[in-house]
Automatic annotation (TrEMBL):
It comes from Elysia chlorotica (Eastern emerald elysia). SMART domains: PKS_ER (SM00829). CDD domains: zeta_crystallin (cd08253). InterPro entries: ADH-like_C (IPR013149), ADH-like_N (IPR013154), ER (IPR020843), GroES-like_sf (IPR011032), NAD(P)-bd_dom_sf (IPR036291), Zinc-ADH_QOR/CCCR (IPR051603). This is Enoyl reductase (ER) domain-containing protein.
Length: 322
C-alpha cells in the first residue's frame, strides 16, 4: 500500500511517500480500515518535528483521524463488519496511508449523510470540542461561550456542539472569509481577532462571557481573563509559546483556567464523547466544513499549510485514494 513515512524527527522534508509499504496485521479487537480520507491536524506537525511530549518510535506513519470502509475485523470485534463506513479518532498504525488499523473502541460508524472527507474531519477536532465543553468546562444551556479561533477545525466543531447544547456563541476569525464561515456555521456574533479593539467590541456587545475556548492562549490568555465573567472558565486548547499573565485577574472573579488534552482520556470520557458524536451525526448538527483536500502525496504541503495558515476556513484533509 501507499503510506507516508517519517524516518527522523525534523522538517516537512522528512515526510516521504512509500508505495510498497506492507498492509498492517489486524489484532483480535482491531479493525482494518481501507482509508479514503485522513484528517491533517496541527499536532502531527509538532510530533513530526520532535517537539511533543509523546513521540512515536521511528519510523512511523503520521495521523490519527481517518474515514473509510472496514476491510477486515479481528476475531473479537462484534460492532463492525466488512463494508461498514466508519471513522476513527485514534489509529494504531497511522492514518496517512491507504489502510490503517484501530482498536474497535476508537471507531464509530460514519453517517451516510457525511462524505469520507467530512468523516476524516471529525476525529481530533470534534472529540476535542466535546471534551472541552462538556467534560472540562461543564457548559450549561444558556451560558455565553466565546470560541477564540472559531474558523479552524476545532472552532467549527465547537460552534456546532455549543449551539446543540443551547449556548450563546461568540466566534472569532482573522479574515472576512473566516468570519463568514463562523457566522454561517451558527455563531450568534462574530468578531475579527486581528482587528484592534475587538475585545472591547465584544464587551460592548454582550458584557462578559462564561466560557472561553482558546485556540491561541499564547496570544490571548490575559485578554481572556479580562473578558470572562465571575466564576467563568477559560479552556486552553491551543498554545504555541509563553505568555505573561496577572494571576490577580483570576482572584477577583474567581475564574478558572483549565487545560484540555485529548491524549489524556479515560474509557468513560471516550464513551461519553462517542455518544455525542454519534448523536450529532444522527440529529444532523455534526457537519464538518472541509476547506481543502490534498492528494496523499502532498502531505508535506498539507502539513505546511495546517501550521502556517492565516485565514483558516475549516479543515484540511488528505485524499488517500489519490
Ligand atoms: N489540547 C488538545 O488536546 C488539542 C486538540 C486539538 C487541537 N489543539 C490545538 O488547538 C489549536 C487549534 O487547532 P485546529 O485544528 O482548529 O487548528 P486550525 O484549523 O489551524 O485553526 C486555528 C484557529 O486559530 C485561529 N487563530 C489564529 N490566530 C489567532 C489569534 N491570535 N487569536 C485567536 N484565534 C487565532 C485561526 O483563525 P484565522 O486563521 O482566521 O486567524 C483558526 O480559527 C492548535 O494550536 C492545535 O494544536 C489542541
Amino acid at each position: 500500500m501507499r503510506a507516508i513515512r517519517v524516518a527522523a524527527f525534523g522538517g516537512i522534508e522528512n515526510l516521504t511517500l512509500e508505495s510498497n509499504y506492507p498492509l498492517p496485521a489486524v489484532g483480535k479487537k482491531e479493525v482494518l480500515i481501507k482509508v479514503s480520507a485522513a484528517g491533517v491536524n496541527p499536532v502531527e506537525t509538532y510530533i513530526r518535528s520532535g517537539m511533543f511530549a509523546l513521540l512515536p518510535e521511528l519510523p512511523y506513519t503520521p495521523g490519527s483521524d481517518a474515514a473509510g470502509v472496514v476491510q477486515e475485523v479481528g476475531s473479537e470485534v462484534t460492532r463492525f463488519k466488512k463494508g461498514d463506513r466508519v471513522c476513527t479518532v485514534r489509529t494504531l498504525t497511522g492514518s496517512y496511508a491507504e489502510y490503517t488499523t484501530a482498536e474497535d473502541k476508537f471507531v464509530v460508524h460514519l453517517s451516510d449523510k457525511l462524505s469520507f472527507a467530512q468523516g476524516a474531519a471529525i476525529g481530533i477536532p470534534y472529540y476535542t470540542a466535546v471534551k472541552a465543553l462538556q467534560i472540562r468546562a461543564k457548559a450549561r444551556s444558556g451560558e455565553r461561550c466565546l470560541i477564540h479561533g472559531a474558523s479552524g477545525a476545532v472552532g467549527i466543531a465547537a460552534i456546532q456542539f455549543a449551539k446543540a447544547m443551547g449556548l450563546h456563541v461568540i466566534g472569532t476569525a482573522g479574515t472576512k472569509e473566516g468570519m463568514a464561515l463562523v457566522k454561517n456555521t451558527g455563531a450568534d456574533l462574530v468578531f475579527n481577532h486581528r482587528e484592534d479593539g475587538y475585545v472591547k467590541a465584544i464587551q460592548d456587545a454582550i458584557g462578559g462571557v462564561d466560557i472561553i475556548l482558546e485556540m491561541a492562549s499564547h496570544v490571548n490568555l490575559q485578554r481572556d481573563l479580562d473578558l470572562v465573567n465571575t466564576r467563568g472558565r477559560v479552556v486552553v486548547i491551543g498554545c504555541r509559546g509563553n505568555i505573561e499573565i496577572n494571576p490577580t485577574s483570576t482572584m477577583a472573579k474567581e475564574s478558572c483556567i483549565m487545560g484540555v488534552n485529548l491524549m489524556e482520556v479515560t474509557d468513560e470520557d471516550f464513551h461519553e464523547m462517542h455518544h455525542v458524536i454519534r448523536t450529532g451525526m444522527e440529529v444532523g448538527w455534526l457537519d464538518p466544513k472541509v476547506s481543502k483536500v490534498y492528494p496523499l502525496g502532498e502531505a508535506k504541503t498539507a502539513q505546511h499549510d495546517v501550521i502556517n495558515n492565516q485565514g483558516t476556513t475549516g479543515k484540511l484533509v488528505l485524499d488517500t485514494t489519490k
